[in-house]
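The pair is listed for reference:
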Amino acid sequence: MHSRECRVDPMDVMGEDMEATCALRVFSNPKHLLSSVVQVATSSNSKDYIHYQHMGGRVKTCRLTLHWPEPLTFVARGQRWVEAERKAAALACQRLKDLGLLDPHNRPLTNVMYNMSSVQKFQEQQRQAKRFEVPEHLLQRMEEYFCRFPVEASTESWYQEAYEETPEMEETSDFSDPITGRRYCPLSEAEASRISRSLEERWDNTVPLQDLPADRHREVILSAIKQHQVVVIAGDTGCGKTTRIPRYIMEDAILSGHGAHCNMVITQPRRISAVSVAHRVGQELGPHLRRNVGYQVRLESDLPPRGGALLFCTVGVLLKKLQTNPTLEGVSHVVVDEVHERDVNTDFLLILLKQVLDVNPDIKVILMSATGDNQRIAHYFGDCPIVRVPGFMYPVKEHYLEDLLPRLSRTYQKPESIEDCSPNLDLVTDVILHIDKCGPPGGILCFLPGWQEIRRVQESLQEQWGIAAGST
C-alpha cells in the first residue's frame, strides 16, 4: 500500500488496519520473511533495502520504505512500535506475494529465480562466439585426438536443466533436498506410509548393542526432544552420545510408525569424524538399515535415500545446504555434535539455526557438547533444557615410550626442531601390535594428525595381521 497522506481520515485508518490485520494472519513472521526475501534476491544486507521510520504519539505509526524490487512505501499503525512494524512488514509481504515474488507456501524463491533476466543475459553472452588463435601443430594434434576419440553431442547448460522445468510440477519446490541434494519434493501420504512400514519391518532385524552410559538416559533424552524444539545434551567423552542419540531418535520414529518423516542431519567438526561415525552408525544399524545412513564431506559423499535417513556431514556442508534451502524443509532434526569446539563456522551455523527455528516450527535442534559453557549456549536458544549424560570413569595408568622401546628392540630419536614433527608411523604400528599382544583385552585408541597417517597405520596393521584391505 503506497502512502500519499496529507491528513488522516478515520475511515482510511480503519481500512488500513483491517488490511494489515488480514496480512498478519497470512504472514506470521513478516519482518523475518521480508528480510529473507531481500537477502536471497539481492545477495546483500537487507538493511540496505529496508528502512523503518517511526512517527506518532499515543498511536504509533510506522513508515516502511522498501527499495526492492522497486521503491515502495507502506504505512501501518499500532499501540506499540513492534506492532506497527509487523503490520507494515506484513503489507510489504502481501505486495511481494501479489507480484509473484513468493512461492505458493509464502517462502522466498531462489536467487536465480529473482534474477532470471541476468541468467538469461549471461546465457546469451556464453553463446556468442569468441575468436582466438590456435597454433597449427596443436590443431593437427587435436584433429588426430578427435579421430581416435569421437566427442558426443553436448548436453544443455546446467542452468537450463535446473530452472527451465515445467510449471505443472506443483508438488515440487525451488528448494533442494538437504538429504539427497535433489529438488525437494514432499513425500505423498501413500509413499510415506509404504516407507514407514518397510523401515519398521527392517528395524525388527537389528542386532542388540553393548550398553553405553547414554542408554540409561534414553527416555529422558527422547522426552526432552519431544517437548522442546531445542535441547542441549552435555555428555562426557565416551558416553555414546555421538552414535546412540541419532539412533534413539530414528528408533522412536520408526516404532511409532513415522519413520519416513525422520530425516536427520548430524554435523561433525572434521571430515574424518563425519565419515567414520557414519560408517560406525551404519554398522550398528545392521545390513538392513545401513543404506539409510550416509555422509557428505568436501569432494566425497555417500548419500542415503530420502525417507528415514541419517546424514553425517561437516559444518561447512550444512552451511552450504542452508543457501539452497534456508528453512531446511525436509529435515526433521539437526544435530550439532561437539558444539563446544567453537569456531567461526559453528557460531555462524548456530545463528542461522536460530533463525530457522522461527520460520520452521517443526524442526528440532539438538546441540551436543562434552565440555564448555553449556548454560550459555542454552541461554542463547531461549533457556532450552540441558540433559546431562555422565560417561565411564576408568583408572588410568601411565606408560612411557622410553620404557617400552627396549621390549620392541627399537630406538627413538627425538626431532631436532618443531618443524620436523611428523610421527614415526612404523613405531606407532609396533606399539599398537605390542599392546594388542601383551596388554589387557579391549579397544586401542590411537590419535594421529590426519587421514593419510591413519590410512598408512591401518594398512600396516592389516599387513601384519594378514587382513585384506577393505575387509574391515
Summary: Residues 81-98 form the longest helix (18 residues). Confidence is low (pLDDT under 50) at residues 1-8, 153-171. Residues 7 and 13 are 11 Å apart (CA to CA). The radius of gyration is 29 Å.
